[in-house]
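ESCALATION

Customer reports they have been waiting on this structure for their group meeting. Please prioritize. Original submission:
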Amino acid sequence: MKDFIRVLKRFIPPYKKYVVWNVLFNIFSAILNLVSYTMIMPILNILFKVKETSYVFMDWHFDPSAWESWRTLPGVLENNFFWYVSHLIVVHGEMYTLLMSGAWLVVLTLLKVTVMYLALYMMIPIRTGVVRDIRNRINRKITELPLGFFTEERKGDIIARISGDVNEIETSIMSSLDMLFKNPILIGIYLLAMLIISWQLTLFVLVLLPVAGYAMGQVGKKLKRKSLLGQSQWGALMSQIEETLSGLRIIKAFNAEKKIQTRFEKTNDTYRRTTNRIYGRQQLAHPMSEFLGTLTIVIILWYGGMLILGDHSPINASMFIFYLVTFYSIINPAKDLSKAVYAIQKGLASVERVDKILMAESHIQSPANPKPVVLNEAIEYRDVWFRYRQEWVLKGINLRIPKGKTVALVGQSGSGKSTLVDLLPRFYDVEKGSVAIDGADVREVALHDLRALMGNVNQEAILFNDTFFNNIAFGVTHATLEQVQEAARIANAHDFIMAGEQGYDTNIGDRGGKLSGGQRQRISIARAILKNPPILILDEATSSLDTESERLVQEALENLMRNRTTIVIAHRLSTIRNADEICVMHEGELVECGQHDELIRLNGYYKRLCDMQRF
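Update from on-call: job pushed to the front of the queue and completed.
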């Protein structure tokens, strides 16, 4: 339970007042429940003449400092209650006494269920609030973690954690909170009553309970291990679904439907077998607690019978009946508590998986005392080394990009072009060396200020399921419609936007699915134009455009790039002929730098790349 307590300490504090009210209402509920039980036994005792005794009203003076005053309280209350019932029978008769006692029981029950409802009602804000907070924390963490974290994790598994695992936390842990707050209170108050009735019998009961608790605890530990495995398999299943949706075009093109179906069904069947074992252990909670409860009652009957039949019995038959009713009232809370423990073990497995995101540390942080950053002179890569795992991706890169110049990075796939550019906005941090703007290491600059200097247009246009306006104005606060329209015109996007049903308020679909590839790219370019950054990063920004759109957008980009520092990652060499400097990368190293004509004359890597594309 230590893990569960740690979870509560992390998520419950904002809802402390609801917890306090829940505990108070549960205490009142338990007391009212106990009072309603105490009424029945003495009434039956008198009505059916189980015990012929004359009762005399006893005066009692309460002294909080005197132990004797506390010790005699239960006996005085019992005697005076019996006296009052006897008095009612003598004065009004047995039927009237039965009617009045029944009415009193109804009133007590109404009070009890009202208080129980209020206790349950106080759990609603806790349950819904904690789940909301967990989702918010995961989403916040996802946006804060560096890109390197997600190269190690499957997207489907992350989706499974924020959906399936958080739902499991809600159903397993949050739904168990009421049982955990209520049942220990009920059990504690009932045990106190049992101690008052007969401490000998209660001590005997307390010896039996730990044995039952240990048996159920062992099953609970195994349940958590299986649950962790099950949630991991659920993540794998979600990953396969995500891959299938993303690669549906390729699956159909290669007639691989059967292969994908077989792979999914195999994983799904493995998950089913694990789930069967989890549910099998979970359903064991109720029968096991039922059996252990019955066994305990039989032993108590035997031991209680020995006490009653003894010569100097500390308990009479009617009190023993009341004792059994009270003990039996513990069984349901104990069963609910055992169910909650099982459910919590299952939920803790989900907490463990969610914590892989929440507890992940981001080594890319803004410094405590950031330096101001403005590009007035140049961007410099100084002896930069970088690796993702073991093998070096960049090896001793030295590069200077003066302000206002356009530098193109070319080379075969995997040569390190994108990685080199990703180091500038600190999507990753260098292993050795440094990246500097006007001499200030980017690691000494606030992340927000650093990335505010840059605008990105990627080879694959990344758009959101939102309107044209919101996609273009993404990241720019308080953008006006006129500014957005001007950016769209420069990117040659205004005409097709206005052709939509609602113009700039038209939704473009998931990832811009309602648009053609060229239209998506032009929206992405318009977004960069609106930001108007001093540094542009273009990752083959025109590769998805048709010939006519490419000509128009290339012209717009050239206007945008004028007097602006631009880094272009180029695959089609025809687009970077006019760059101020072309840098050729090969296996993580800069092997050639110069202008187009100079590099052709060198007859090296660049010349070979040009010849291959021409061919």
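Sent to customer with the following note: The CA atoms of residues 489 and 495 lie 8 Å apart.
Escalation resolved.
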